[in-house]
Amino acid sequence: MFFSRAGSGNLANGSSWRNGFAMEAxxxxxxxxxRELRLAKIYAGHHPDNHASKHFFERLxxxxxxAVFCELPGLLHPSYICYRPDxxxxx
Length: 91
Description:
By secondary structure, the protein is an alpha+beta fold. The chain has a domain at 40-91. It contains 2 helices and 3 strands. The chain has a 3-stranded antiparallel β-sheet. Strand 2 and strand 3 form a beta hairpin. The longest helix is centred in the N-terminal third of the chain and has 16 residues, at 21-36.
């Protein structure tokens, strides 16, 4: 079975913030996407009031694309994209 899209999300309580768990998990997901699934790009988004997530995704190489309306909770959510790294450029 093949999928053209996939999604993931996370919720964490304050006691697990700033321990690097999310960074490690998303780096692992990106690596899986690039190496195993051979994706050309991966999208991400977050709640518009979560400014820490904006910086988090930017640190991982995502760039802002647009604000996308999410029916629940009825807000414009920032949307980001990360393209597969060029293997020649990373050597």
